[in-house]
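Input/output pair, single chain:
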Amino acid sequence: MKKNAKMENKLIDKIEEILNEFEDFERPFINNRGDIILRKKLIKSENSDSSILANIFKEMIKNDVKKNRV
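Output:
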């Protein structure tokens, strides 16, 4: 293994140690351009919350349209 690759792996390990304190992040990795990528985990509950909110607004708009037709 090259010295540079060893340093990159050591850096990734250190970043991973820090990220262990935060639940919202995936394991860091290095892309093909040499950038270290830190991604937030996708949390499905947020998506369902936003769809619930969207459905509430749809119902409100639908009810307003019905009121205006009468």
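The radius of gyration is 23 Å. Residues 12 and 61 are 49 Å apart (CA to CA).
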